[in-house]
């Protein structure tokens, strides 16, 4: 459920007309709903209600906006981070360090030092060499790093190849069949407190069966590690639960169904469970608001050219991802069209042969379910300014990241003296 609704023929976000935001901020602009964020956190937490003190660590990569993170911090969420920058963002937004988990395959020594200085909850290690590096950094600092190994269970999540992370050919984690030896070695390293296991098999999962298969393997591993004398106290089950993008496709499993499966599979593990939801929290809480520049007749169908582009919302170009496209003020007519942006790439295409509301030049359209992996992946290709972001709460709204002027982008370049 989201809080983007039509009232008197106009799309509103909570109590604010989308057209009001477009007029004040300009387009394209990301718009987030606080009420939707609150609802999604509540639903996810309730789904895990049978568990004892789970740590829900929001995947910061999904949406690192400070106002969004601060909203989630007030709701008691932690943070799953994959860079030093994300760690600093999470802490600055008010997420306590003891709720921060550091994941990712390429942690540097500098990032390890930063996380150890801040005393984060846990590192999720992705390789034996990473364990050796973290141990050396921790020993040099006179600290002990709390760690888990991320395990690659070789389970196909059934999702897009570019967001699959749990198959043997993916770069993430250590192979399941190497786990026991890796834990034995890590336990000998004085700078590490080896206390957990972690798994994450992919993003936008629409079936619980792969997740259950991965979790069952983790349960067996926890038992085997215990038999070898390793006291496993945490199990990070990752994130990846899908959200509905295309209304023509089956609805992904609900958080309630996910929670029931997790509760059943993990019964008897005697560990603190951890989760890294991202998309399921923020996906439906955001929309990208754009204006139609013009409509151009193509060889077979019209091209609706909008002022948003692939640099604002990369997912369709990168993943062939679907976003529902709605007129902010529909006129009751429909059409079939190609929706494209102004960037000079054929890949700057949001939809092809899309049945949608009929629109004309200067109309506003909204790309729905854009709160996750939207603004965070934006860039300045074609010297286009980064997309601003707006947060709405009831009848209030605020710009939570302004659109930087193009002049600032230009001034960031330095021309050497010998060129001048």
Description:
By secondary structure, the protein is of the alpha/beta class. The chain folds into 2 domains: 4-31 and 283-411, Lyase, Ornithine Decarboxylase, Chain A, domain 1 (Beta Barrel); 104-275, TIM Barrel, CATH 3.20.20.10. It is built from 12 helices and 21 strands. It has helices spanning 18-25, 34-47, 66-74, 84-92, 109-118, 128-141, 179-187, 208-227, 255-265, 279-282, 315-319, 406-411, and strands at 4-7, 10-13, 16-17, 29-33, 55-59, 78-81, 100-102, 122-125, 145-152, 174-175, 192-198, 234-236, 272-275, 286-297, 302-306, 325-327, 334-340, 349-357, 364-367, 389-393, 396-401. Strands 4, 14, 15, 16, 17, 18, 19, 20 and 21 form a 9-stranded mixed sheet that branches. Helix 9 (255-265) links the parallel strand 12 and strand 13 (272-275). Helix 2 (34-47) packs parallel to helix 9. The N and C termini lie far apart (56 Å). The model is unreliable at 157-168 (pLDDT under 50).
Spans with pLDDT under 50 lasting ≥5 residues? 157-168
> Which structural class best describes the helix and strand composition?
alpha/beta
Helix percent reads: 25-40%
Largest sheet: 9 strands, mixed
Overall tally of structural domains = 2
Annotated CATH homologous superfamily of the largest domain: Alanine racemase
Tell me the span between the first and last alpha carbons: 56 Å
Question: What name does CATH use for the topology of the largest domain?
Answer: TIM Barrel
Shape descriptor reads: globular
The CATH class of the largest domain? Alpha Beta
Mean pLDDT: 94
Number of strands: 21
In the CATH hierarchy, the architecture of the largest domain is Alpha-Beta Barrel
State Rg.
23 Å
Assembly type: single chain
List the total number of helices: 12
Strand percentage, roughly?
25-35%
Binding site for pyridoxal 5'-phosphate: 240, 276-279, 373
Binding site for substrate: 279, 315, 319, 345, 373
Family: Belongs to the Orn/Lys/Arg decarboxylase class-II family. LysA subfamily.
InterPro entries: Ala_racemase/Decarboxylase_C, DAP_deCOOHase_LysA, De-COase2_C, De-COase2_N, De-COase2_pyr-phos_BS, Orn/DAP/Arg_de-COase, PLP-binding_barrel
